[in-house]
Structures
1.
Amino acid sequence: MLKVSNVLELMKNTPLVALRGRAVSKPRARLWAKLEMAMPGQMKDRVAFKMVTDAEASGVLRPGGVIVESSSGTMAEGLARVGCIKGYRVIIVTDPRIDVSTAAKLRALGAEILVVEKYHPTGGWQQSRLERLREVLRNTPGAYWPRQYESPSNPGAYVDQMAGELIEALGGENIAALVASVGSGGSLCGTSTGLKKRFPHIRSIAVDAVGSVQFNQPNSNRLQSGHGNSIIASNIDYRIIDEAHWLSDGEVFNGCRELARREGIFAGGSSGAVYVVASWVAEQFGPDKHVVCLLPDRGDRYGETIYSDEYMEKHHLMGQEAAAGPQRIRYGVDVAERWSYAPLPHDGSVPYHSPDVSLSSDITRELGL
Ligand SMILES: Cc1ncc(COP(=O)(O)O)c(C=O)c1O
């Protein structure tokens, strides 16, 4: 039996589970899911732990100090839990979209939650949150802001640790592809960097949302959350990503339901998206290869959305399952409306992202943070 001295020791070594793949897929390579949702606070635990320990080591965070972050999900929970065990005050700036159970969990862990009220006319909730965060930082001398979109500690949490866990679990056998969703880019880019040291030809496959700007697509409204973004996180290292996939809300939510039905894994939206793509990717390789995917969070806080028939019907998402495979589109030229994919242009012929979207580092500069 695993015996640990506190929950911080559970923020790594997540299980690797063999998957059957979707009903419409015929995976030939062995398909594995890394259950990041099995950590006490889900996917960002290992990131929060690394950020805080790096900040302690560099002296940015002092004993009994204050951690301030803008988040409404897994990052907030990771920081709240690490702060609770290590004795830091944690302030989370969020917006009215935060769900009841996440807010309750954060409060239970001792975090203070500040909910912004005004939607910023150009920068939306993201900008409103950053402006409030700036205020808090100004009024709290010595406070530490982890900045998951920019901090090297975010991908740094994956480079050696996650890649090492995967290589060890598969006995050093060949991993042909890694499939992961992208929000800050930390998990895909950090893990790819680590795995590429051992398997230089591994394919690094990004899963994004239709309507997200991360891979040179126009911004549009979407219901899926966790992955996808309306700004570009500086932690997305485009040079190491081989291929991007985009999925619509209906494809993602129905993918979650299929993941639960076929594999017994009750997970959040990004896991459903990853499941659809990884099942197909595993068809592209032979039986002597492994395809690994990362499943970020549990399904509990999506009971009133992804797992509610009423919600699905209201948004006309019932029956919108992903096809057996994606359609190929031209990167930066065609607009994805349903499951599509494109290889990333590494010859500079097409920009990775459109020039008129802000980078996370621009926002922090603009706000003088
Ligand atoms: C539920 C969920 N899925 C996926 C992601 C994307 O992961 P990353 O930030 O490592 O790109 C996040 C990021 O916050 C998330 O919370």
2.
Amino acid sequence: MSLQPFFEWMGGLRFSAFFLESVWPTPIVQCIHLVSVAVFVGALLLVDLRLLGQGLKETPLPQVARAAEPWLFGSFVVLVVTGIPQMSSTALKQYYSPFFWWKMEMLLLGVILTVTIRRKMASTEESQLGPVWPKVVALTSIALWTSVTIGARLIGLLS
Ligand code: HEM
């Protein structure tokens, strides 16, 4: 099933035209998207570094994870809310960009990892985790979210 009709519909919305034709909405939304990337990656790294045995070593892992979680989920919601207008106002450019689809695939994998294995692991006492799996999960998480940001940057650079 092709998603092209959906992207054509999105690009044709008045909301998309408003974004494309007005001067301020796009840069403001892009700035908020980028600030949210910084908050999201910060909250992510607090836990991933901790899983790697680095960073806030004095604080128990579940405590670090609990403190980071509202920032992680809150900034993700802002990323989705600010990503949608950018996507709809340039819908066909996104549809034809392989990097957009790369970003979305990595994003989906990143979300699945974050809300399943990584979340369960981060709420468990370290003594029960063993030395290898926390590092595997942390490195996978860092690799997936780095791929999301590289894919996102390439949409703009190579289209
Ligand atoms: C469903 C959620 C998201 C949607 C729909 C979305 C959509 C977009 C779109 C359409 C762009 C503009 C690309 C262009 O044409 O140049 C963009 C830029 C970007 N996004 Fe997202 N995004 C989402 C989530 C995320 C997440 C989770 C991250 C990182 C963790 C992220 C990082 C970036 C970065 C780094 C840029 C490039 C900004 C620039 O080059 O100035 N996005 N996003």
3.
Amino acid sequence: MKNFRSTPRTIAVGDVHGCNAALATLVAGLNLQPHDTLVALGDVIDRGPDSRDVILQLLALRERCRLVCIQGNHEQMLLDALDGRMAVQEWLIYGGAETLDSYGKGSGMLALEAEHVEFLRSWVDVYETDSHFFVHGNYLATRPLDRQPWRDLRWQSLKWHTPAAHICGKTAVVGHTSNKQGQILNLGHLICIDTYCHGGYWLTAFDSTSGRVWQANEGGEFREGQLPPIKSAGCIQFG
Ligand SMILES: [Mn+2]
């Protein structure tokens, strides 16, 4: 069979932020098989134009492969606003306004479909393979993965805290801290694939089983390559 892959892949996807066209282009280039695992690293909603369509696309992807979704700080804000733990207005300022507009211009919280909200509630904090672990943003290197504070997992920027290798010995794959030049960050023990798609750069997918990367943008461009060489933490250039 053409394009048949016998080795299951684990492919992480960085912060989509409502960029449905980029996600569609990226997924089309991945040739997903039912035994592949796609790990959405969170922040699939807010800021970009098509959050509702991104959620629909992810729901549909469950039929094509194994889908794991990690909750980002933006999904947390939506749920916190919905549940009264955060002022709705605050979420709207952080990009929630674009999400509500994707449900119809000028929509309120009631426009969020129940199936979509339940889907977002089901997302996890951490996903692990034998060699890698996947979180939205950051972690505490000396604390077990099942006891990480959500503030560190979902909110802490790599700009303020670049963690050492985690005690589990696995490589971290994260998003959240966007690289404003659209570059993947590879520190060896930590790989950040938030390459600022909603800011005009790339949506990145990374196969932790092979080191392959794929990128797509909102303009329909697609490219494939390898993970960049390891940099030391002192070389990080953030915009
Ligand atoms: Mn984030």
